[in-house]
Amino acid sequence: MRFLNRSAGRLSRHRRSRLAGLALLLIGLLTTGGITYAVMPSSQAEDAQSNAVQVEEGRKLFLQGCSFCHGQNGEGIATVNGDNYGPSLVGVGAAAVHFQVETGRMPLAQPGVQGQVKPRTFSDEEVEQLAAFVASLGPGPARPNPEEYSVAGLTEEEREAAISRGGQIFLTNCTACHNFNGKGGAMPQGGFAPNLSDTEAVHIYEAMLTGPGQMDSFSNGNLSPEEKRDVIAYLYSLREQPSYGGFTLGGLGPVSEGMFAWLIGIGGLVGFAVWIAAHTTRTTKKKKVEA
Amino acid sequence: MAIDTSKVASSNSSAATPAKPSKAGAVATWADDRLGLATMAKKNLRKVFPDHWSFMLGEIALWSFVVLLLSGVFLTLWFTPSMSEVHYEGSYDQLRGIAMSEAMVSTLNISFDVRGGLLMRQMHHWAAMLFIASMMIHLLRVFFTGAHRKPRELNWVIGSLLLLLGTLEGFTGYSLPDDLLSGTGVRAADGFMKSIPVVGTYLSFFLFGGEFPGDAIIPRLYIIHVLLIPGLLLALIAAHMLLLVYHKHTQWPGPGRTEQNVVGFPMLPVYAAKAGGFFFIVFGVTALMGGLMQINPVWMYGPYDPSKVTAGSQPDWYMGWPDGALRIMPGWETHLWGDFTIAWNVFLPIIVLPGLMFTILMLLPFLESWITGDKRDHHLLQRPRNAPTRTALMVALMTFYGILWAAGGNDIIAIKLHMSINTITYWLRFLVFVGPVIAFLITRRWCISLQRHDNEKLLHGYETGIIMRSPEGGYSEKHLPISPARAYTLTARDRDEVYTVEGDVDENGIAAPASRKNALRARLSTLWFGDNVQKPTAEELEEAHHHAEHEHELQASLDGHAADGHQFDGHHSVDGETLRGGH
Amino acid sequence: MSGHDNLPVQVEEPIDNPGLPEHHWRPTDVDPKAEKRAERQVAALFGLSAVCAVLFVVAYFALEVGDNHDTVLGMGASNVALGASLGGALLLIGVGIIQWARKLMADVELTEQRHPAASSDEDRALTVAALQAGLEESGIARRPLVRNSLLGAVAILGAPAVVLLRDLGPTNAQVSDAETGAGLEHTVWKKGMRVVRDVVGTPIRPSDVEIGDLFNAEPAAIFETDENGQPLIEGVPLQVAKSKAAVVLIRMDPADNTPARGRENWSVDGILCYSKICTHVGCPISLNERKTHHLLCPCHQSTFDLADAGRVIFGPAARALPQLPIAVDSEGYIVAQSDFTEPVGPSFWERDS
């Protein structure tokens, strides 16, 4: 901490405690952070805008950032081959918009390639407006309420049962693409089911509900909201669970385990073998003759 | 062909001889009175073993086998090999209440409710991987150095069987917990058996005790895993070691080493210490891996269910290459007479191919001795470069193996490298044939060029890095002769003798019956040895030395004057600097 | 050397064997201080190993597993501690012994003569003579009746050995039963049996299925219970049933579907039902690409086009995915029209399509 006190004179250095610099730093950080937090707009979208205004604002945003591929009215733009630049968004619902735009997948970085998670382009308020606009194009799934996918209100036993059942549902419906750990898997033609380790609960729910990209949908007729909640609870329990056996080595299964067996196991042991059989230090001195 | 055996191993240690009878001596006397072991022990206690790191690869396999036995016994004390369905009520929350087999329940119990259980499980699994991996690198070392030649061909066959049995042992072992991942593998194994023509369904039904999955497979795999295969492994390992001790270990050529002797350290104490110490090191490394690196987390896979599967379903790495062959195989099936199906797409890659590969592996020493016609005993090793075709052949086989191995992980490659799995598969179908050929050609030429480089060193010395300028103005690099020890080592190899067919017609002009086979043999032998660079003859060496001396005469005027920046003038030391390459 | 090996005599070696190099001593051989230091080093390694072993015992009793699993750095504490201490204990002993050998044990290279692998000619001759004497006395060469009858008897002993294995399991022909769905050709699916969601067991209406949905489904028989609430099929028979009867239910735009001939009425308004068991080696498949209707198997990447009667479009599978004909029953739930019309799962010899 000496550098913080460097500018102080001799007299001042004796008067200030050695921790003064640290304390000042912390106070400064807390103050600026606190002020920022206080004046920052709330992340909860509690704008008092009416729905019509939102739809209109959303339409403007849509024309700017989305209509190039999805058409001016979200009708989709087809190519001559029968493919499309962007599919029709009629009926996809607010949930789809929330998922795609909040995870940063949309706007796509490049057409023809599977959307990847990247830094978001639109703020929370803008997402709300876009969602309102798209929802206005045709009836579709709405954003879920947190109560729908949270296990907070359940008793300990119910929560455990939910997690167990969620695990069975996850293993039946999801692991074929996303792997037992949710680490992701390969799909045809360069596609992939993404890693779920950092995905927020609401986005998992929305993805199941709307079936983004090539993912199938698991509408509420397929997996009920409680079942979706159970799957999310299971995934979160996997995240919180310690890796009982040590480092997870990527959670990809036998392929990475084999690689580590070779690199660390065989590599290490061959290294030891080289050491064992290596020449030891030699000296030019001669051994004294025994008397 | 009696060899002088009067020179027995001598000792140079200064160990004091005991003055009074020791306790150990008393015990030894008691035992010898009944077992008569001294006769055998007198030769073997100070038996000489040569010392090189590459000779320890087989030891990794041996010691990891011991670790497997020890950790395996521990696991058998808790594991229940039964497929009866129970509901899990142990301490792993996410699976509580779920129906699963007793095998899975006992595995979860070992992992979560037995202290040290998870460590032993993981150590057992890591040791299994090390066991098979070390057998493979040991095999490669033996083959590349020519240690599989007479009289060790049978040991090679035993080793190949050990590799095969080790692989099967691993497969049966990791299938025992009856979890989703290994169960998927067992399901695939059922599909493999069903693909066998005529007897497929019978094999499947007999193995599983009925329709898949039945209730018999886990107990049967268990007994194969803890009794049948370990018994065979122990017997084969004992035979392998006995032959090694009888034949004595091979050694690298060098000063003091001949085909008739073995130079190294005595069994007691040095070799026993190094081998024993290495055992503890293998055990210790396995324990560290078992403690720090999670492997096969069966609780996350959950119990086996035929309607569930995980992405990234692969067998353990040592089964990766047949799995890869299965993945890149096109979907070929034949229907015979409308009544029968031959599933080539499964039968060829998973039944025929591994059988073929292991057969080729076992026949390699016999194939080589037939082609080369070499029936002599060999106890000195060859550098891989001195057998270019053999080295290239194994590199080609390794490439074939490696490409199939990569194919087994094609979906992991796809997600990690962001490539299309379809493109990867198509490329691998092409590479699996072309790759080994390219690898063969490149390796062979590389070995031959290394042989040429060795000969250059023998004839013209090594490059010192000192550039000298002649009075006329020309630049040349000074070469210095390599030391006699190194020169000897480079020449301590056989000359290649191509097998030729004598005129084998008898006095009546009747050709010998096997002449067509011999003609093929001669052709193959020519190909085998073709283009190899032989070591120089004594005359060629003489001539080269004359030439070198002549050069030195020309540069005599430079003697004694230190080359700029160096403390010696090229072949005399100046200011006490030691010559490079003196060893 | 005799024989057909055709190898000429060895050409003279260009360089003579210089013999074993001169031995150089190690510092621990000539310097008593270095020797003592090495001794202390080795002893220290062994001492450290003992400490690790004690740590192991401490960790075993101090760290909990099971319901209150101790953790450290997000990993299981007991496993990490036990593994590290055991590993340390063993490794340090090993390293100590090796150091002992390298630094302190005599390291002068010794020479031992080899012997040919073959026995001496004299031994061979004696053995051959002994063998011949033994064989001659047995009379096996002179008495073909005795010899051949023995060989025949021993050979036939193979039959009991093989036959004893017959009851390892039934054959397919023995178990095959259309009523119960047993055997390779049948599943538990029957006419009118409802298609239910896997895990939860609830029946499905067409209106539940949206375009792009993928249902992992089972026959209702899997979840049926008797009057006491006990499942009718459980345990191993349940697994056997699931291994053939698991299905996937998807919905696509009816215009996208090109049904096979004769299968035009196998779907319900774009809802199609296919076997979940891959025709390659039997892994369950449910990686569906909703837009292309390509179903990918994770095991070996066989890909099936569900809009084209489950035809194989990539990968090692050779046969199209079996399709389950479905209809809607009187209460509006999706039901099967019949069992699968072909065996489900991997190919086998007796399969006739």
Q: Which features characterize this protein?
A:
heterotrimer; A: 291 residues; mainly alpha; Cytochrome Bc1 Complex, Chain D, domain 2; 3 domains; two-stranded antiparallel ribbon; 13 helices; disordered N terminus; C: 353 residues; alpha+beta; Rieske Iron-sulfur Protein; four-stranded antiparallel sheet; 8 helices
Structure, described:
With 291 residues, chain A is mainly alpha-helical. Chain A has 13 helices and 4 strands. Chain A has helices at 2-5, 10-15, 20-39, 51-65, 67-70, 93-102, 124-137, 146-149, 156-173, 175-178, 201-210, 225-240, 254-277; strands at 77-78, 84-86, 185-186, 192-193. A two-stranded antiparallel sheet of chain A has the order 1-2. In chain A, strands 3-4 form a two-stranded antiparallel sheet. In chain A, strand 3 and strand 4 form a beta hairpin. In chain A, helix 6 (93-102) runs antiparallel to helix 7, helix 9 packs across helix 12 and helix 11 (201-210) packs across helix 12 (225-240). The longest helix of chain A is centred in the C-terminal third of the chain and has 24 residues, at 254-277. Chain B has helices at residues 23-35, 38-44, 57-76, 102-112, 117-144, 153-175, 180-194, 200-208, 217-247, 267-292, 298-301, 320-328, 344-372, 388-408, 410-416, 421-460, 484-491, 515-529, 538-554, and strands at residues 48-49, 85-87, 99-101, 261-266, 334-336, 340-342, 462-469, 475-480. Among the domains of chain B are: 50-320, Up-down Bundle (Cytochrome Bc1 Complex, Chain C); 459-502 and 511-555, no CATH class. Chain B contains 19 helices and 8 strands. Chain C is extended and about 100 Å long. Among the domains of chain C are: 27-104, no CATH class; 178-336, Rieske Iron-sulfur Protein (3-layer Sandwich), CATH 2.102.10.10. Strand 4 (261-266) of chain B pairs antiparallel with strand 3 of chain C, so a sheet runs across the interface.
